[in-house]
Specification:
Elements: H1 6-48, H2 56-62, E1 68-77, H3 80-84, E2 91-111, E3 116-127, E4 139-143, H4 145-158, H5 161-172, E5 178-183, H6 184-190, E6 192-193, H7 196-203, E7 213-214, E8 217-218, E9 232-235, E10 247-250, E11 294-298, E12 303-315, E13 318-324, E14 359-361, E15 371-374, H8 383-388, H9 396-399, E16 402-406, E17 411-425, E18 440-452, H10 455-511
Length: 512
């Protein structure tokens, strides 16, 4: 008999067919979107985050092409006579004086069993007059760090009238509390000549001076232009991607010795300040989460630091995370117990209180000279630091340290490191020359080191990683929604056939 309603007959077959096809495609897409694609993306990222000789990652790591600028801002003393006679130091920031860095790594060896690579880093600095406020021949007046250093070391060593005699002898050689008309080039790299007296102190073994003092000269980065660093040993990240770039040893040591707190047991859980944690700041492991700490070891400041997640942002079309230094990092140990082992006693009756957040002493890692570390202009620091000197103008937009990172690959899109180095001026008991000084933490300079990923590298990350992931993010819910609707439509058509079409067909057959 002729089918009087062919469309209803088609529905009889379409319902189960649509349901079956939609169900299969839905399962396939779920597997594809939730398992296959993430696994492929993960595998591609892991392939790029390994220090393997011959790869693009290796080449970029050993010969850094991105422009890195280092900017020095010097605190010029404007009230020299008043400051030298016990007055509060009045400081004027002068800068920036800018150098461009060229960083390369001298590979010493690779240990495949240990999954490590050892190297020394060489940094060449090239002055950028076009980005600087003046020339390298400009001069400034700064607090006399060499004199304060030598005086403090002599006092700690002799601790007697002989120390007072030697320091008075320095004063008779025209040493004062302010170092006048210092050449910028010499102050930063080449070395300010100090005279034979300082050199003799070191040669005769009277005192041991830190790296800033070399052959009778003083400079912030003395003999570091083009000089290989101490040896680093870092993890290649081949066996475990989470260890990618982590420092295993520095200068053949697995930990430091600067921060041992003698008041605590050697195996105390609070003796972790000597641990070498994190990378050198040039690479990070992939799959960065908001709740993790980004750890960096910096030999310049003799310690590891960490940054915490601050906010999400869009960096030139790339979804990114911003990490910054938290206030807790430089809090005093009475506020943050984690910093207890950074509170070392300088000894010899010198002030040893660590009360006051925002700055830490570096005496122990600088051979005992009175050097302190903080953020520029004592950002996040105690009010007293701003009151002890004049000229501090903290501004988070100018003085914070931050890293902008693409979280999937761990690629650094921009890094800005900013630190301030100061000297602690205090009265030395029994030393006549220091009896009237105005006790203060006096800033010497602050430095910004900044690296921005080149536009071609930003475009590569955007095109190879972000765009595909964004396409997937947009189309995944659309495709899944369409398949779910198709599946629901198939089920409804099947139900319609079961409860409406089939009874009518049975009724028609019964009548016939």
């Amino acid at each position: 008999m002729k089918n009087r309603n062919p469309h209803k007959a088609a529905i009889f077959f379409a319902g189960p067919t649509v349901t079956a096809i939609a169900a299969v495609l839905l399962v396939v897409c779920l597997v594809l979107f939730l398992i296959v694609v993430p696994a492929v993306v993960r595998a591609l990222i892991l392939k790029e985050t390994r220090l393997l000789n011959g790869t693009e990652t290796w080449e970029k790591w050993t010969d850094i092409k991105i422009p890195i600028l280092i900017k020095f801002n010097i605190f010029n003393v404007t009230n020299i006579e008043d400051a030298e006679n016990g007055g509060k130091f009045k400081l004027q920031e002068v800068g920036p004086y800018v150098w461009e860095e060229k960083r390369t790594k001298q590979i010493i060896g690779v240990d495949e069993d240990e999954d490590t690579v050892s190297y020394r880093e060489v940094v060449h600095y090239y002055f950028r007059r076009d980005l600087s406020v003046g020339s390298q021949e400009d001069t400034v007046n700064i607090i006399n760090v060499p004199f304060l250093s030598a005086s403090t070391l002599i006092y700690k060593l002799l601790y007697s009238s002989l120390a007072n005699y030697l320091i008075d002898f320095f004063m008779s050689m025209d040493e004062k509390f302010v170092l006048r008309d210092v050449n910028i080039r010499e102050l930063v790299f080449d070395g300010v000549h100090l005279g034979a007296t300082y050199e003799n102190l070191a040669d005769f073994g009277i005192v041991e001076l830190p790296d800033e003092f070399v052959e009778g000269t003083f400079a912030f980065y003395n003999q570091k232009n083009g000089t290989p660093s101490k040896e680093f040993k870092v993890n290649r990240g081949i066996k475990n991607y989470k260890d990618f770039g982590k420092i295993v040893e520095f200068d053949h040591q697995k930990k430091l010795s600067y921060w041992t707190n003698q008041s605590l047991p050697e195996d105390s859980q609070h003796q972790y300040c000597n641990k070498i944690n994190g990378t050198d700041g040039s690479v990070f492991a992939p799959f960065v989460s908001k709740d993790q700490r980004l750890r960096i070891f910096n030999p310049e400041i003799c310690r590891s630091i960490y940054l915490r997640f601050d906010k999400e942002l869009n960096f030139e079309g790339i979804p990114a995370y911003r990490f910054s230094i938290p206030e807790e990092l430089l809090q005093d140990p009475y506020t943050n117990g984690e910093n207890q082992c950074f509170c070392t006693d300088p000894g010899s009756g010198l002030a040893n209180s660590c009360r006051g957040h925002g700055a830490i002493r570096m005496f122990s890692c600088k051979k005992g000279i009175p050097i302190g570390l903080s953020l520029p202009h004592f950002l996040q620091g105690d009010k007293r630091y701003h009151e002890e000197v004049e000229g501090m103008k903290p501004d988070p937009s100018k003085h914070e340290t931050d890293i902008i990172i693409e979280p999937n690959s761990g690629a650094i899109l921009r890094i800005v490191k900013r630190i301030q180095i100061s000297t602690e001026l205090q009265r030395l008991p029994g030393i006549t020359a220091f009896s009237k000084v105005s006790e203060a933490i006096v800033p010497i300079f602050w430095v910004e080191e900044r690296g921005d990923l080149a536009e071609t590298d930003v475009a590569e990350i955007r095109d190879r990683l972000v765009v595909p992931l964004e396409i997937l993010r947009v189309w995944k819910p659309i495709v899944l929604a369409m398949l779910v609707l198709s599946f629901i439509s198939g089920v409804l058509m099947s139900l319609y056939e079961i409860y409406f079409i089939r009874p009518q067909r049975i009724q028609c057959i019964s009548i016939l």
